[in-house]
Amino acid sequence: MPTDRLDPDNGCGQCADSPENLPSALWWGNGLRFSCIGCGRCCRGEPGAIFITPAEESAISCYLGISTEDFGKRFKTSRWKAPSLKEKKNGECIFYQAENARCSVYPVRPLQCRLFPFWPVLLSSEEEWEKAAEDCPGMNSGRLYSAPEIAELLAQCPFPSLL
Ligand code: SF4
């Protein structure tokens, strides 16, 4: 899942979690490297939830030219803690195209996909990050994201209690 840089919400800069006030002791305080190579591994393999917001449901439905009701029947599941995308029987995301390892709704893919691997759970400890890096060849190489940039991406997480 190639990841674009997102427009950060910079906030007022006054609160304790603003990028300027990040504790220097954060394990990722010197930044982290990540550049997606588009291998598609994160879109297949073991089951996992890709949570979607109502706005994302509308955006994907619109992109596909179907109603949100139709989208719900065909592509949405509630088997996790919140609405998420279905998977195929082999564990691939319902929108993963195996023939070219691409996402069929890439321009409107959920924010959770766009933010990977800068998810709260993966940033919670170096161990979690390194465990995920074993399956993602894009982690720990390529572009260096600074701590403030990572904090901005973290702040965008639409499901901080789930990711
Ligand atoms: S596993 Fe990593 S490198 Fe491969 S598509 Fe996903 S984010 Fe990109």
DSSP strand tally: 6
Attached small molecules: iron/sulfur cluster
The secondary-structure class comes to alpha+beta
The largest sheet has its strands arranged as 1-6
Distance N terminus to C terminus? Answer: 17 Å
List segments where confidence is low: pLDDT < 50 over at least 5 consecutive residues: 1-17
For the residues shown, what is the average pLDDT?
86
Query: Can you count the helices?
Result: 6
Largest sheet: 2 strands, antiparallel
Note the quaternary state here: single chain
Shape descriptor reads globular
Q: What is the C-alpha radius of gyration, as a whole number of Å? A: 16 Å
Order of helices and strands: EHHEEEEHHHEH
Domain unit count: 1
Helical content stands at 25-40%
Strand content: 5-15%
Describe this structure in words.
The strands form 3 sheets. Strands 1-6 form a two-stranded antiparallel sheet. Strands 2-3 form a two-stranded antiparallel sheet. The chain is α+β, with helices and mostly antiparallel strands and 163 residues long. Helix 1 crosses helix 2. The chain contains 6 helices and 6 strands; from the N terminus they run E-H-H-E-E-E-E-H-H-H-E-H. The chain has one domain (19-155). It starts with 31 loop residues before the first strand and ends in an 8-residue tail after the last helix. The structure holds iron/sulfur cluster (SF4). Iron/sulfur cluster binds at residues 1, 36-42, 116, 136-138.
